[in-house]
């Protein structure tokens, strides 16, 4: 957003932005009056907070003592608006969740926009207001950012990059390399909801029950889990590549193997039916409001109960165990009593899903 551009701006120097019929033009990214107007009338108005209102090219804030974490995430979802959400709230949820998977309490966000010439101002306003609402609900301020405009045909609407900063409470040590043989694998709810919601919109598919994205901020769920079980070994949100890819990442990072129970993995019936219709495996479909937790076996019951008592974890389930495996394979016991390898995602299953 180039906050410094706000200094000394008067709101009456040009006609107010036409959020009903107007579109983005190259002048909105040129750094002049049109840029200042866009920033002032849209971004600053929506994200209003004491840090952003400092009006500098950077945000100044007081850091708190302890271990800090930072995460950056680019968002290029297509379509921009989908059942259950849009690229705006998704960009806030996704980065807050990346911070929260360390056990951290998220504090601040930055946001960078790349907008295509000709993009409707009404859609941009809708996206920005969705971001602002998601940030307010999460209790996290968007305190700095940047806006760029690219020529028509070179941006495909709007891309958003968000960066988050958070603080890890004392005594919390969560790491992707922390899984140990004997540990229990939990998931916070049904998988595949987000990816199937995107596909249903993209392909104009209608199902008997509407499938909504699960996009949500998970930091309050994480805080409740850690209050019950501070010794959680691993947390990860299974976004691109889905549950299967996430577990393969953890298995490799921790130098372990895993065995999943297919019958225990929660999948909503309408998502399962949609995946069968589309030829997709829900294990590889993206999620934006679910997490994987790995903990010691003696902590599993308490952790599962804590998850199920939170509104974002009511369908949490115990889905497998960590074991010794020099090959770091993720395997699955099928409903028919056999076993199969759950391999890494190969190629591109769902383009531009988050």
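^ Assign residues to that structure.
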């Amino acid at each position: 957003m180039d906050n410094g551009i706000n200094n000394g701006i008067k709101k009456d120097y040009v006609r107010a932005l036409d959020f009903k019929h107007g579109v983005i033009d190259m002048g909105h990214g040129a750094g002049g009056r049109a840029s200042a107007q866009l920033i002032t009338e849209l971004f600053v108005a929506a994200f209003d907070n004491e840090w952003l209102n400092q009006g500098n090219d950077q945000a100044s804030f007081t850091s708190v003592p302890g271990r800090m974490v930072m995460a950056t995430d680019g968002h290029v979802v297509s379509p921009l608006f989908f059942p259950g959400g849009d690229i705006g709230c998704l960009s806030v949820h996704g980065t807050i969740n990346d911070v929260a998977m360390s056990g951290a309490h998220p504090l601040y966000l930055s946001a960078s926009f790349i907008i295509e010439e000709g993009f409707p101002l009404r859609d941009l306003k809708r996206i920005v207001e969705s971001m602002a609402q998601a940030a307010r609900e999460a209790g996290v301020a968007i305190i700095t950012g940047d806006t760029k405009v690219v020529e028509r045909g070179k941006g495909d609407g709007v891309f958003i990059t968000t960066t988050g900063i958070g603080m890890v409470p004392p005594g919390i040590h969560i790491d992707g390399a922390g899984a140990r043989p004997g540990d229990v694998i939990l998931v916070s709810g049904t998988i595949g909801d987000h990816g199937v919601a995107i596909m249903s919109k993209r392909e104009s598919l209608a199902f008997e029950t509407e499938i909504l994205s699960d996009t949500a901020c998970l930091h309050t769920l994480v805080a409740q889990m850690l209050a019950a079980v501070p010794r959680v070994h691993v947390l990860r949100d299974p976004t691109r590549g889905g549950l299967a890819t996430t577990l393969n990442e953890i298995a490799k990072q921790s130098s372990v193997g895993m065995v999943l129970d297919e019958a225990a993995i929660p999948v909503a019936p309408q998502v399962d039916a949609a995946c069968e219709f589309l030829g997709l495996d829900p294990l590889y479909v993206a999620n934006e409001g679910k997490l994987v937790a790995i903990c010691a076996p003696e902590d599993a019951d308490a952790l599962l109960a804590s998850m199920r008592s939170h509104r974002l974890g009511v369908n949490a389930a115990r889905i497998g165990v960590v074991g010794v495996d020099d090959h770091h394979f993720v395997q699955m016991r099928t409903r028919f009593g056999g076993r199969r390898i759950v391999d890494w995602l190969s190629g591109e299953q769902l383009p531009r899903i988050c």
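The helical segments are 33-47, 87-100, 121-138, 193-202, 219-228, 242-254, 269-278, 300-308.
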